[in-house]
Structure prediction request, 213 residues.
Amino acid sequence: MAEKLVVKTVRDTAFSRYGKVVEGIDVSDIIEAMGETPLPDNVAYEPSVKSLESCTSAGKIAASLYGGMPIQIGYCNGNNYLLNALEYHRDSEVNIAVTDIILLLGCEQDVGPDYTYDTESVEAFLVPAGTVIEVYGTTLHYAPCNVAESGFKAVVILPRGTNTDLSEEEKPDYTPEDKLLFARNKWLIAHPDSGLEADGAFIGLRGENISVR
Prediction:
């Protein structure tokens, strides 16, 4: 039987290798706008939502946290308890926890030369509602997990174009890592139990498909 998952908080020093808590930017307008977004039974991700990007704090985030780079603001809402996959980007991701969420995280540096990753290395972190965090570009992450049975809502902020569709013709085939490229600026390693192989995902997670239940 698997050991009970230990869930730390993002205020724990263990989180410092994966990201940091962001202070100083009032994001209450984005959190309020998230009230109009759906909360489905499964998981819904939208990379760019105009109602969120038009909030006053969106400009502050772009100027401060992304140094003036163009960004997109979307959401990941729904219900999820499983790891299923891990992804990474070439840039940091900023998350705003609208509800309490749990993130399952790892380090890109621990990915093997064959692009496999042992899920025993994953750590779980609680992000309390209202908290803004930066998740470093070298941090492996995926969809948030529920804390409450009622589901979760999280804001996802990334450089513009990230996680958008990449056609088969556009996918490169120059380096071994290219087989992980699942969307624009999104390298994905999936678990064999995730069902993502049918969508063309690289299956490379070894070990338990971790559950937060």
In short: The mean pLDDT is 97. The chain is about 10% helix and 30% strand.
